[in-house]
Each structure stands twice: as structure tokens, then as C-alpha cells.
Amino acid sequence: MKKSKNLLINTAFTYALLAMAGGVFYREFTKFNAFSGVTALGVVHTHLFLLGMVFFLLAALFQMNVNLLGHKNFKKFYLIYNLGVAIMVIMLIVRGVTQVQGIALSRGFDAAISGIAGIGHILVGIGMILYFLMLKKLTAEKQ
């Protein structure tokens, strides 16, 4: 992975676009299906905005003071964190679409969705821990 100076900003921008698309999909899909209840689709855009756009905008600000991109664990963090967010969002969409469509899920399929989403959450958690460990090390080195 090429570590461009704009990687963090570009990642934030990509997440912003995905978040907006997620919000539009939620609105249009529920309207098209005449669905007015609560669905997991309603939180797709907030997950993408906060865990994606806001997180990477903050990382870009930290990059101005410490060299996150140059840290030996940056690539590992970047891949694990983004994979985790992607898995979480995909499972939110799967869960939300089945809710809107009124699809009765077998206990096994319901558990599979929850389990895969849980893996996404675990990866995001590991990514955040790596991120904070990088920040701690880099800020300690700077002092």
C-alpha cells in the first residue's frame, strides 16, 4: 500500500460518500417497500460517518503532528480497521434488508448474521487498539 500524504483524507472522503449513499439507500429502500418501522439500515450512514469519515479526519489531524503513516504498524491497523468496518456495515445492510422485506430468518441464519457482525466489531476493536498504541508511541517519541 502506497502511503500517500492524502491517504487519510481520501479514506475519510470515501467513507463520507459511502455514508451518504447508505442514507439515500435507507430512505429510498424503505419508501419503495412502504416500510415505516425501525431497521438496521437506519444506522448504516451513522456508522460510516463516525467510524469512517470522522475517525480518518481525526487521524489526518494527528498525522500533522506525528507520523502515523510512517509507523511500522500503520498498514496492519489500516487493513484490519477498514475490513472490520466493511464487515459491520455489510451485515447491517443484510440485517436491514431482511427486516424491511419481512423475511423470516432461520435461527441459524440469524445467528450467522450476528456472528459475522461480531467479527467485524472485533476487528474494529483490534484496529482501534493498534491505532491508540501507535499514537501513544509516536507522541511519547515526540516529547
Notes on the protein architecture:
The protein is mainly α and 143 residues long. It has one domain. The chain has four helices and no strands. Helix 2 (44-63) runs antiparallel to helix 3 (74-101) and helix 3 runs antiparallel to helix 4. The longest helix has 36 residues, at 107-142. InterPro entries: DUF2871 (IPR021299). The chain crosses the membrane at residues 7-26, 46-66, 78-97, 109-133. Keywords: Membrane, Transmembrane, Transmembrane helix.
Compile the SSE list and pairings:
Layout: H1 7-32, H2 44-63, H3 74-101, H4 107-142
Helix pairs in contact: 1-2, 2-3, 3-4
What brief labels describe this structure?
single chain, 4 helices
The secondary structure category is mainly alpha
Number of folding domains? 1
Beta-strand content bin: under 5%
Helix and strand run: HHHH
What is the gyration radius calculated from CA atoms?
17 Å
- The total of helices stands at 4
Approximately how much helix is present in the residues?
over 70%
Instruction: Point out poorly predicted stretches.
Output: none
Keywords: Membrane, Transmembrane, Transmembrane helix
InterPro entries: DUF2871 (IPR021299)
Pfam family, one: DUF2871
Summarize the structure.
By secondary structure, this protein is mainly α.
